[in-house]
């Protein structure tokens, strides 16, 4: 008579279960979003409301950098925060801006346009003051196209007598 051998299964040591890390949920903050444009520059602005803070410097991040680091000259820095200064609400808002295209001046004016539009979304009463300052209207001027036979839009080839 043939007997079957019973196989004995050995239990492998299972790794101890580690407690799962609890992910902290970020609280979604309310913001007002708008787009500002100037020449070839496009700025996407998100305006967050916050508790008024002490220092008079506005918290404006441009491409993840403070605006005074992104824009080196004082005139450009003033252009960027001029809508907030006009409404005397420099310390009531935080803004994050993504800007691309164009030159540095066009980018600064695009941000100004976007910030103004966001402020109007926040409070429509701001519109009158910002319109009077000329911040709401988009500057429609663009680069003129090059014409055939010319070197640039209007500059012709140099004339030579012989």
Structure explained in plain terms:
The protein has 162 residues and is α+β, with helices and mostly antiparallel strands. It contains four helices and five strands. It has helices spanning 67-70, 74-86, 104-122, 127-133, and strands spanning 31-38, 41-49, 59-62, 65-66, 93-100. The protein has a five-stranded mixed sheet. A hairpin with a 2-residue loop joins strand 3 (59-62) and strand 4. Helix 2 runs parallel beside helix 3 (104-122). The N and C termini lie far apart (122 Å).
> Count of DSSP E strands?
5
Order of strands across the main sheet: 1-2-5-3-4
Unreliable segments of 5+ consecutive residues: none
The level-1 CATH class of the domain at 31-133: Alpha Beta
Overall, the morphology is elongated
Residues in helices, as a percent range: 25-40%
Structural class: alpha+beta
Architecture of the domain at 31-133, according to CATH?
Answer: 2-Layer Sandwich
Mean pLDDT: 87
Distance between the termini: 122 Å
What share of residues are in beta strands? Answer: 15-25%
How many strands, what sense, and barrel or not for the largest sheet? 5 strands, mixed
């Amino acid at each position: 008579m043939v007997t079957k051998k019973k196989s004995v299964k050995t239990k492998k040591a299972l790794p101890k279960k580690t407690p799962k890390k609890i992910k902290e949920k970020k609280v979604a903050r309310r913001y007002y979003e708008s787009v500002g444009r100037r020449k070839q520059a496009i700025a996407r602005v998100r305006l967050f409301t916050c508790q008024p803070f002490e220092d008079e410097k506005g918290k404006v991040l441009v491409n993840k950098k403070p605006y005074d680091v992104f824009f080196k000259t004082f005139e450009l820095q003033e252009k960027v925060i001029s809508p907030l200064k006009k409404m005397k609400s420099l310390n009531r808002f935080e803004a994050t801006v993504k800007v691309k295209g164009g030159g540095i001046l066009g980018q600064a004016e695009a941000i100004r346009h976007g910030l103004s539009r966001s402020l109007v979304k926040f409070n429509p009463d701001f519109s009158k003051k910002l319109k009077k300052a000329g911040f709401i209207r988009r500057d429609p001027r663009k680069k003129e196209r090059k014409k055939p036979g010319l070197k640039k839009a209007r500059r012709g080839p140099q004339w030579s007598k012989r």
